[in-house]
Amino acid sequence: MRADGMRVIGLTGGIGSGKSTVAHLFAAQGVPIIDTDDIAHALSIPPSPVLDQIAQVFGPEYLSDNGSLDRARMRQHIYAEPAAKKKLEAIFHPRIKDVAIQMLNDLPDHTPYAILAAPLLFETGSYSHIIDLSLVVDCSIEQQIARVQARNGLSKHEIEAIIASQCPRKTRIELADDIILNETTLAHLQSTVSTLHQRYQD
Ligand code: ADP
């Protein structure tokens, strides 16, 4: 907890669980959201030290002509060579964490609480000292697949591979302080978020 009492809630969940939707619902209540995906995106805009290091570690061919990350090439490389994923994470994660801490510190005094939205909250293991409690958005794997298919048309096989690369559902639930079961309507999700919002403000 920050000296002024601000708490940090770590929000996570598997792909398609509804994390982003939940983050938007908290944001609509005026809660500051710090999103590690947004930070990763900002760190990947050229010119950036992250991209310089990627070129150094992986080779300049992993950057496109305009200096941005060649995501398709990197994805292929990581797929073929799992150790490369670790190397890439070692470049990104410490920096993402530093920026997240800075952003949390910069929030106004007497902010009751903030949300740190981190898809890899448990996978990276580096957020346990930053957050006061974790909030997991959960739903069945079938629903994860159906939602992601509807969202961006990935194949069932591709989505299953992503799910398999993430923290297992059971582990995530075991690690959670709070759980939102997002298996019904958006209206129900909204009311669950409102209830949690009241609690987190106290
Ligand atoms: P995540 O950020 O965890 O990948 P999203 O919040 O983007 O998941 O949700 C995945 C998709 O499912 C989105 O298109 C979202 O609008 C939809 N969705 C999430 N929760 C519900 C729900 N309770 N009812 C209907 N659609 C939902």
Compact summary:
By secondary structure, this protein is α/β, with parallel strands linked by helices. The protein has helices at about 20-30, 35-45, 50-60, 70-80, 80-105, 140-150, 155-165, 170-175, 185-200; strands at about 5-15, 35, 115, 135-140, 180.
Would you give an account of this structure?
The protein folds into two domains: 128 residues, P-loop containing nucleotide triphosphate hydrolases (Rossmann fold), CATH 3.40.50.300; 55 residues, no CATH class. The chain has a five-stranded parallel sheet with strand order 2-3-1-4-5, with helices on both faces. The mean pLDDT is 95. It contains nine helices and five strands, in the order E-H-E-H-H-H-H-E-E-H-H-H-E-H. The chain is α/β, with parallel strands linked by helices and 202 residues long. The chain is globular, with a radius of gyration of 18 Å. The protein is 53% helix and 12% strand.
Descriptors for this entry?
Rossmann fold, alpha/beta, 202 residues
Q: What is the CATH top level name of the largest domain?
A: Alpha Beta
Q: Would you list the SSEs in sequence order as H and E?
A: EHEHHHHEEHHHEH
What class would the helix/strand composition place it in?
alpha/beta
Q: Based on the coordinates given, report the CATH architecture of the largest domain.
A: 3-Layer(aba) Sandwich
CATH homologous superfamily designation of the largest domain: P-loop containing nucleotide triphosphate hydrolases
- Strand tally is 5
Query: Do you know the CATH topology of the largest domain?
Result: Rossmann fold
Low-pLDDT stretches? none
Rg over CA atoms, rounded to whole Å, is 18 Å
Strand order of the largest sheet: 2-3-1-4-5
The portion of residues forming beta strands comes to: 5-15%
Please report the distance between the alpha carbons of the first and last residues. 14 Å
Q: Please tell me the total number of domains.
A: 2
Q: Name the ligand types.
A: adenosine-5'-diphosphate
Counted by DSSP, the helix tally is 9
Tell the overall outline. globular
Average the pLDDT over all residues and give the rounded result.
95
Q: Which range best describes the helical content: under 10%, 10-25%, 25-40%, 40-55%, 55-70% or over 70%?
A: 40-55%
Q: Major β-sheet, in short?
A: 5 strands, parallel
